[in-house]
Amino acid sequence: MNTTKNKMKAKTMKRREFGIIGYPLGHSFSKAYFERKFAEEKIENVSYKKYPIENINFLPTLLDKECSLCGFNVTIPQRGNYTVFG
After folding, report:
1. Domain range for residue 11?
2. Could you state, in chain order, the average pLDDT of each consecutive group of 10 residues for the chain (86 residues)?
3. 22: left (phi over 0), alpha (psi -120 to 50) or beta
4. What is the CATH number of the domain that holds 36?
5. How much is the pTM?
């Protein structure tokens, strides 16, 4: 596809959200890493956010609220707590 068609397609595509969940998230470098990776790979209409949730029981609420959330990773301190959903 040529560049003009790619730009037109990007404008019509639905925005996709990705992120990291867990608590705390202050130490996480994931947001900067993925934003840079999206830019390097020329992936458009995406964003990456931090979702600080302390308890796995809040995950269904987050998923209901963030309808455009397509995927997430879990911060290392919380991974053991989230595997019950896997």
Report:
1. 3-85
2. 53 84 90 96 96 89 94 77 56
3. left
4. 3.40.50.10860
5. 0.73
